[in-house]
């Protein structure tokens, strides 16, 4: 019995390996629009797709980021300035994309732009940071997708949404986790609706990688700001030791971030160029062998394991 089961599993993975080696043809005629190309995954992906011969339409937040990307790529890469939280920017960028793709439509949309504004705990989270995070990481993704969708449907193309392992396993980063859980839900709903039009929707779930979002110095500044701006009452409830030990724990975690961004961008490229892409890609060893398996544990056990990592508040019962 076990031999038959092992054979079935082996045949399944062999079949999947074969399907995932089938690549889309005529890549040189296809356009891909990527948000958040100033640095990190978006910047790396734009360069990677350029080398594959695709036509890349890269959206950057700043002129500096756009200029640098243009100097580091071929004339197949063109840039536009885009703030995904501003509707007028999205409308202008959509018109710009239409002028470039013409009747071919848009083969790929990669919703990569994101921000990370850490706070010490839920009671120290501000509405301002929550709103900023949701506007970029979730509302921006939805609005950009909605605006570009007619062109993607025309090309029967791909939508690749960058989520996170924190969209599968929530910790203490309430605003960021909420935004990424939202991206997961949005992507699942969109995939079911778009399959009727031949449009594929893929989710990339990276683990911890060394990018501007996980910059240790920026993290310390935001974490300290969250503590400083909290009320005296809340500070007394949690205590200085709670702040210092959790700061040290997360700092050590960030220092262990993977530096090889290709582990993520290779997944993004595969989702755009494979004839049979996966619905979900887990990028990074920590995502595949720790965070994703942890997300399947019973809730009581998972809560115990996660809470045991962090310092308890001073006035915990």
Report the total helices: 12
* Beta strand %: 5-15%
- Globally, the shape reads globular
User: What percent of residues adopt helix (DSSP H or I)?
Assistant: 40-55%
The CA-CA distance between the termini, in Å, is: 51 Å
Mean pLDDT, all residues: 91
Tally the beta strands.
7
The largest β sheet comes out as: 7 strands, parallel
Structural class: alpha/beta
Along the chain, the helix and strand elements come as HEHEHEHEHEHEHHHHEHH
In terms of per-residue confidence, which ranges show pLDDT below 50 for 5 or more consecutive residues?
none
Which radius of gyration do the C-alpha atoms yield? 21 Å
Kindly report the spatial arrangement of strands forming the biggest sheet: 3-2-1-4-5-6-7
Describe this structure in words.
This protein has 317 residues and is of the alpha/beta class. Helices cover 54% and strands 11% of the residues. The chain has helices spanning 2-19, 40-51, 63-71, 87-101, 127-155, 174-194, 216-228, 232-238, 240-255, 262-273, 285-294, 299-307, and strands spanning 31-34, 55-60, 77-81, 108-111, 158-162, 200-206, 280-283. It has a seven-stranded parallel sheet, with helices on both faces. Helix 2 packs across helix 10. It is globular. The termini are far apart. The model has no long low-confidence stretch (mean pLDDT 91).
């Amino acid at each position: 019995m076990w031999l038959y089961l092992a054979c079935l599993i082996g045949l399944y993975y062999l079949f999947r390996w074969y399907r995932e080696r089938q690549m889309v043809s005529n890549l040189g005629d296809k356009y891909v629009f990527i948000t958040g190309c100033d640095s990190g995954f978006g910047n790396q992906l734009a360069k990677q797709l350029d080398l594959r011969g695709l036509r890349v339409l890269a959206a950057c937040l700043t002129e500096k980021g756009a200029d640098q990307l243009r100097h580091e790529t071929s004339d197949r890469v063109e840039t536009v300035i885009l703030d995904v939280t501003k509707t007028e920017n999205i409308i202008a960028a959509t018109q710009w994309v239409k002028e470039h793709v013409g009747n071919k439509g848009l083969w790929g949309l990669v919703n990569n732009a994101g921000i990370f504004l850490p706070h010490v705990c839920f009671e120290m989270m501000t509405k301002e940071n929550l709103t900023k995070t949701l506007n970029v990481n979730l509302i921006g993704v939805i609005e950009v997708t909605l605006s570009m969708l007619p062109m993607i449907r025309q090309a029967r193309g791909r939508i690749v949404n960058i989520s996170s392992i924190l969209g599968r396993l929530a910790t203490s980063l309430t605003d960021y986790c909420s935004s990424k859980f939202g991206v997961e839900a949005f992507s699942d709903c969109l995939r079911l609706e778009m399959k009727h039009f031949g449009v594929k929707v893929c989710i990339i779930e990276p683990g911890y990688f060394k990018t501007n979002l996980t910059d240790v110095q920026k993290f310390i500044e935001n974490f300290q700001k969250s503590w400083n701006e909290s009320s005296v009452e809340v500070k007394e409830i949690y205590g200085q030791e709670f702040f210092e030990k959790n700061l040290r724990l997360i700092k050590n975690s960030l220092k262990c971030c993977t530096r090889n961004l290709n582990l993520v961008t290779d997944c993004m490229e595969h989702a755009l160029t494979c004839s049979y892409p996966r619905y979900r890609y887990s990028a990074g060893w920590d995502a595949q062998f720790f965070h994703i398996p942890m997300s399947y544990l019973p809730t009581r056990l998972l809560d115990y394991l996660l809470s045991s990592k962090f310092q308890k508040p001073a006035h915990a019962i």
